[in-house]
């Protein structure tokens, strides 16, 4: 997809220029606050598949992942059985790692439990939004107190592939943290989006 002309020569976070798909993702998704449960679950799942791999690999396969996992509707994914797992392991469009596939199915079941207990995934997850005044400068860390706490609680509830670094990356992308570089043209836009965002 072609970027709008007004954004083509703007200064972005350094990572945004490292792959062809990254500028679009950086400008229109990364860091905008999200409260939709299905989108939050999708990102948790994609972070699971990214473990040990690059985000470029996962982003390039995202459309295939969405088709394979019913657009990450956790009500449907929670019902996956052995036949579904076999089909996923034969799907060349996704990352065919059995442990990660089983983790996503497990996490879908845990997501259903969380919705029943907490009302929504968003209600639970946004409790771990860090105080901006306690965070160091952007792009200087890979975990924070809140990502460690979120990881610990999710593991306690039976979630898998939810380590502190994975949770920090999740929080960055879903807008719980504005980690755009100080000189990135998107930083102010994300600040405004976060200020206008209604927390669940």
Automatic annotation (TrEMBL):
GO terms for biological process, alphabetical: base-excision repair
Keyword Zinc: yes
Residues holding Zn(2+): 13, 26, 180, 184
InterPro entries per the UniProt record, alphabetical: Adenine_glyco, DNA-3mA_glycosylase, DNA_glycosylase
Keywords of the record: Metal-binding, Zinc
Molecular function in Gene Ontology: DNA-3-methyladenine glycosylase activity; metal ion binding
PANTHER family: DNA-3-METHYLADENINE GLYCOSYLASE 1, DNA-3-METHYLADENINE GLYCOSYLASE I
Protein name per the record: DNA-3-methyladenine glycosylase I
